[in-house]
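Please review this one.

:::
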Amino acid sequence: MSNLVPGWCLCLLLGGMLWLALAGRPRARADWLAAAGHAPLLGLAACGLLAALRPAVPGEALFRASLPLLAAAVLLAAGAALWRWRAAGPAAAAATAAPAPLRWWWWLLLIPIAVRFVFLLDEALLRPVFAWDAWNAWSLKAKTWYSLGQAPFMAPADWWASDDPLARTALAWRYPELLSRIELWLAGAAGAWNEGAIGLAWPLLWLSLIAGCAGQWLALGVSRRQALILAYALASLPLLSVHGALAGYADLWVAAALSFGVLAWLRWRRARERSQLAVALVCLALLPLFKFEGAVWALLVLGAGALVEVPARRRGLVVAAAVAAGLAGLLLAWLLHLPWVTLIRDVLSGATDSVNISRWSAALAFLNGLFGQNNWHLLWPLLLAALFWQRDSLRRRPDTGLLALLLAGGLCALFVLFVFTPAAKWAASATAANRLVLHWVPLAVSLLALLWREAAADKALPPAH
């Protein structure tokens, strides 16, 4: 455990420098809060990518071997951050009025978040990785690599025919491996396969997700009171809290990268901050590295961005080019026998399961996960009511309307997956369906924040005569 504290310090320092290098000099206190929220995600992802550069080195030796690379990355990121800081000029750091002190009742919201974080930290420290998907998809590879180096994982048939003594196989051998490499790096920093030390990343990511979203809400014009209340609402969601302690699962990482990417894109659209566009692209690029569904969400956001950013007269051309590029990429992946094509084919065709579930049952189970269970409190009914109440703002404010369309597109994609494909069994069993909905939950709360912002702005307008 001797390297764990300096390892975490270097990781968070790298994440903070990467944020400053991408986003430039902070212009307001909201940017500092957003930086604190983005730093763990960016830093841990960078450490996982650095671990991939030394695949033959196992265990603690990997951490020691990656230290020069990590130090070089910190210096490079710090140099880029310093250059961006100086390039911003003194005008970017113009003094602002001191904020009003926190009122006493605001502490009633901040203290429960802190207490909840302590409990999640305790869960992560004391509970071993036990979730089946975690061992099947991510932690299995990490523990294997800790002992052997980053041995290749392949299909069972290929493994049976392989003469590579290091080759391994698993049921979920095709999953993206960035999270496994992050776990490997954390285990190397701990000096042993210490699941408590590895699990620390999950409650920290839970807290950073709340802080990062709150910082971006403030930058998007949400008041501090509104941001604090909705940060508490986000922290109180039961299934999100569960994943804050459920070490080994990738869904919280996908939710953080997706939320940060979309909110940074909305900031770019609001004030044309090019730095935020860079943050958005980096976060979206991380999505396919965490989970297969992340690739779908990244394409959805990028497709929406391409449609709204090009002039209306050229949108048909952009759609045609995107369809052609998608078909060409699919054909190339099929010719190269890439595993994700086979996985999608098997899921859509039902080759992976023979369970027969009616579409009505699957649809009711999916909707029950949103409205009938206790995973989200009253988030979804409240969001529907807010959308109806502030329906005019969806047309008047492009960022609010775009976020609503993105959220609707994501939920519709999940509905199709869990109703019209063999994946309906996961909706019926109330397992994977709710975990994938989790990816969009922080953006659902973000939409509530923007709708509340519009309601407050309308209330502040003078009455029309």
In short: Residues 91-97 have pLDDT under 50 and may be disordered.
